[in-house]
Structure formats: C-alpha cells, structure tokens
Amino acid sequence: MRQYDLAPLYRNTVGFDRLFSMLDQLVSVDAAPSYPPYNIERTGENAYRISIAVAGFTDRDLTIEVKENTLSVRGERKPSEERKVDVLHQGIAARSFDRRFQLADGVQVVGAALENGLLHLDLVREIPEAKKPKLIPISSNGAQAIEAQKAA
User: Fold this and answer.
1) Phi/psi at 7 (5° precision)
2) Residues of the signal sequence (predicted)?
C-alpha cells in the first residue's frame, strides 16, 4: 500500500489539522479494527442509525461518548461473580473494544438502545437556520423591492 506524506500540507495551512488526521485515518484503513461489526443506515432525510453487534454485553458494560465530532463506543465486559463455569469452547467474542466514528458538523446523537444483542445509536443532522434554504420574493418593481429589503 502507498504511504502519503502530508507534512508539506501541515507547513502551509492553518486550522486543517482535523481534516488531515481524517485523511491519515482513511489511508490506514488496513489498520482499522473489524470488531465489533456494525451497520450504518439512513432512516430519514436527516436521520441515521448505527447498529453495533455487541452480543454478550450489557448496558453496564458499554460506554458511549461524543467529544469534538467523534463518537466513541467502548465495551468492556466485567466478570460476573455469580457465574463461575468452565468454558469448553468460546465462539462468542467478548473482548473489549473501542469503536470510533467521525461525525459531520451538526450531527447529534439523540438516543441509544440495546436490544437483541445490537446497540442502536440514533443520530440526527440539525441544519442551522442560517444554512437552510430560503425563498427570495420577486417583485415587479426592482428598485422598490431592494429599498424595502434594506429597510427591514
């Protein structure tokens, strides 16, 4: 795989550190963890759902945190005091994990639910009023309309 050196870009730009770190992560996809498996679904025009397979984990074993547009889901299975058994074969992975997702600006996590071994995270993209499209009225008297807009 090719390695790209982004050092020249760091020297000539200011404020793009987050973009370059995301590019570094994309280039090193081979090093990305594959456990636990997950799905990302679009459930509406501005709504999304991330479903992560967390079989064997309870809500007490999972931690969900959003910090600086990064969603982190951590799982650490705590040993059960009441259940002391000898496992003859362990095919269900219950190892600790830390899965991270980069969120776009304006994307908020609005809910989380654990059901049937799947952790569902619901996300919504909230578009600020300033960025929403707006209709501009057209009048037949161009000069009068511009003066009316300035006065308002």
Assistant:
1) -55, -40
2) none
The whole-number average pLDDT for the span 4-29 is: 65
CA-CA-CA-CA torsion sign (30, 15, 133, 70): positive
The token duo for 28 is 């090193």
pLDDT given for residue 139 in this prediction: 80
Q: 133 Cβ partners below 8 Å, 6+ apart?
A: none
The tens digit of pLDDT for each residue in 114-134 reads 999 999 999 999 887 887 788
Residue 127's nearest CA partner among 150, 149, 108, 110 is: 108
The candidate with the shortest Cα–Cα distance to 58, out of 117, 123, 142, 138, is: 117
